Amino acid sequence: MGTAERREVLGNGVVAPSVAQGDVEKVSTGRDTGTGGIEPSLAPAEQLRAPVGAEARPAYRQLWVEEPARRRRLPDPVRTAAVRAVLVIAVTLIQAMVAFLSALAGSWLAFPTLLSSVASTVVATWAALDVWVTRQVWNQRNGVVSVPSSTARALRRERRKARRQARTVARTQERIRRQGGGSGQLSHP
User: Fold this and answer.
1) Rounded distance, CA 113 to CA 100, Å?
2) Sorting pLDDT into bands at 50, 70 and 90, what band is 88?
3) What distance in Å separates the CA atoms of residue 84 and residue 80, rounded to the nearest whole number?
4) Pick from 13, 25, 7, 20: which is nearest to 53 by CA?
5) What angle do CA 181, 187, 189 make, to 5 degrees?
6) Cα separation of 90 and 127, whole Å?
7) Mean pLDDT score of the chain, rounded to an integer?
8) What's the helix, strand, coil split of the chain in %, to 5?
9) Cβ–Cβ contacts within 10 Å for residue 131, how many?
10) Which end of the chain has fewer CB atoms < 10 Å from its terminal CB, N or C?
């Protein structure tokens, strides 16, 4: 049936493609096998269409399904620089096209548009470099958490380890002071 394939809901809430009457197709019944998988079964189409339980529920599918983002969102300064760069590059490409077409037509606009497109090429290059520099500055100031070999993470780990050791030494010194200030015996008899 192509893209307009009809779907029906099995009794247990699993969506399965509808099949012609009498056809037998390998369709998941939605039963858990206990090994983490779903048990496939060979069942006639009538058996799949039959509602399970006393009441048959209508098949409603959600219109919008939230999916977790695959990548983290860009930081605000980097995103604004990227948007600015895309707009400047788009304008530069339009200017270059106008310069090219006016040169083909032999118009008097060819030379001024050529000069402006050269200037906007310089600006577009600056905008693209601005995105890169802004991203580097942001990463340096805030640290990169998502990269496994992040320097910021390693530095934080070292600082935590040093603080932990300092607390251990301070607790040991406090315990020694409470027990008599070090004037007692040094080891067990």
Assistant:
1) 9
2) very high
3) 6
4) 13
5) 125
6) 12
7) 75
8) 50, 10, 35
9) 20
10) C
